[in-house]
Design a protein that fits this description.
This protein is α/β, with parallel strands linked by helices and about 475 residues long. Helices cover about 35% and strands about 25% of the residues. The chain is globular, with a radius of gyration of 25 Å. The N and C termini lie far apart (about 90 Å).
């Protein structure tokens, strides 16, 4: 057994773990990084990167068959599903060197390719190594949650960890779960030529603003996706034709050729032996305070395993929060009110801060909603992407949330994240100048919509203007 001492031990080489390791090492800390699986974690290998790459292939196929509105003849796309998956793997391979062991060793990080397990409150064993660290960061991420549905173990099924290895296009893909992963993969596969049925036990895209989610669901249904809501999967069986049948609790039956499970995520904590380190956990993951510290004051948890929002950019944000505390001993707390998220369907669906329902519940009549429709944006009209709208929830002249559905909706959320993070006023957003014509003008126009009734519908403003005009030379 080889003993190693270090300033900082990071368990997990996903987005959060890599960010902490690189930052801490380059600022002078002695860092050890453990990774028993793939460098880059879920996002690079099974999540964000491959899913958006497959969506890109699907978008091209859809564009070929919907080109006539632009004066270009429609073409029935000839889809090579295996080649689309080659595209996915090429994108992963292009990005992989950024997350590679060699790159991080170049930063001075000692990378050990093994899984870690706590021995006591400050010692972790990884293979033949015992690591004694002043501070430890758990960044082990999450994995697909597969519910105990009767019969599921007797049929082949996919998760996001295995779907991108599939080389033959599904004839009819059944997707259990109508959240972001399920809906993105539904649109990708319908556009690549599969039949698709989404089976959702409650409401599809149920965590988003229902008015905006309805726009996405309408589009997916128009493209041919069968979305069954209120359909709780009860039993899964194989059919005589080597297919799969899903029976729901209300008696509905859905037959398909392939099955994707997309019902949520579970934290990767089972093999860490956290009880040996006195680390409290719950179903969501490691219990942390707002500084991301666990019940063991030497141990932090970041990203998916910390039990909050499960997004790559959250893990990166968490990394910045704890570096301040670990390296400099300064107080640093994580916030969530400025964290955006997006579902990358077409149109995109994105959110930051409070939804309209949440803002109404928290602020009551003090909350106002500013709205702007995409069909008033010239760039959206030029590109025939005019379906969508943005809503901004405003309290005392400051945004507390923004919701958007539409072309490049995820891109638009960056400005509102900055506004909320810095407590900006709507007047400051309205004062920006966006290049014309761009989709980004939507942000300026919705800020203008907030002020329009105050300026154009105000008798006081009219009286002041008329008074001034009489006296101006």
């Amino acid at each position: 057994m080889l003993d190693i001492t270090c300033d900082l031990l990071v368990i997990g080489a996903g987005s959060g773990g890599l960010s902490v390791s690189a930052g801490a090492s380059q600022m002078g800390a002695d860092v050890v990084l453990l990774e028993g699986h793939k460098m880059g974690g879920d996002c690079l290998n099974y999540g964000c990167v491959p899913s958006k790459s497959l969506l890109a292939s699907a978008k091209v196929a859809y564009g070929q068959s919907h080109a006539s509105a632009y004066g270009v003849a429609d073409q029935v796309p000839v889809v090579d599903y295996a080649a689309a998956k080659d595209h996915v793997q090429e994108v992963i391979a292009t990005i992989a060197p950024v997350d590679s062991q060699e790159r991080f060793e170049g930063f001075g990080v000692r990378v050990i390719r093994d899984y870690g397990r706590f021995i006591d409150d400050r010692v972790v064993q990884a293979g033949e190594h015992r690591i004694i660290a002043r501070r430890i960061v758990i960044a082990t991420g999450s994995s697909p949650f597969v519910p105990p549905i009767s019969g599921l173990d007797n049929v082949p099924y996919y998760t996001n960890e295995t779907l991108f290895d599939l080389r033959e296009r599904p004839d009819h893909l059944l997707i259990i779960g109508g959240g972001p992963i399920g809906m993105e993969m539904a649109q990708a596969h319908i556009r690549l030529g599969s039949k698709v049925t989404v089976i959702e036990g409650d409401k599809a895209l149920g965590k988003d603003d229902p008015e905006l989610a309805a726009v996405v669901l309408e589009q997916l249904r128009a493209e041919g996706v069968d979305i069954a809501e209120g359909a709780q999967a009860d039993t899964i069986t194989a059919t005589e034709a080597d297919g799969i049948r899903v029976l729901t609790k209300d008696g509905r039956e859905f037959d398909g050729s392939h099955l994707l499970m997309a019902v949520g995520r579970r934290p990767n904590i089972d093999n860490l032996n956290l009880q040996a380190a006195g680390i409290e956990t719950n179903r969501a993951g490691v219990v942390v305070d707002n500084s991301l510290r666990s019940s063991n004051r030497r141990v932090y948890a970041i990203g998916d395993v910390a039990g909050g929002m499960q997004f790559t950019h959250v893990a990166g944000y968490h990394a910045g929060v704890i570096i301040r505390s670990i390296l400099f001993g300064l107080p640093s707390k994580a916030k969530i009110n400025h964290i955006p998220w997006a579902t990358y369907t077409s149109p995109e669906l994105a959110q930051v801060g409070l939804t309209e329902v949440q803002a109404r519940a928290e602020h009551g009549d003090r909350m106002e909603v500013a709205r702007f429709e995409y069909h008033h944006n010239d760039r959206a009209l030029a590109e025939r992407k005019s379906k969508g709208l943005i809503k901004v929830m405003v309290v005392k002249g400051r945004p507390v949330g923004a919701s958007v559905v539409g072309h490049q909706g995820g891109e638009l959320m960056a400005l509102w994240s900055m506004a909320i993070a810095n407590n900006l006023k709507m007047s400051q957003v309205a004062g920006m100048v966006a290049p014309y014509p761009t989709i980004s003008e939507v942000n300026k126009r919705v800020a203008g919509a907030y002020f329009s009734p105050r300026l154009f519908d105000s008798p006081m403003v009219k009286r002041v203007v008329q008074f001034v005009q009489r006296w101006l030379p």
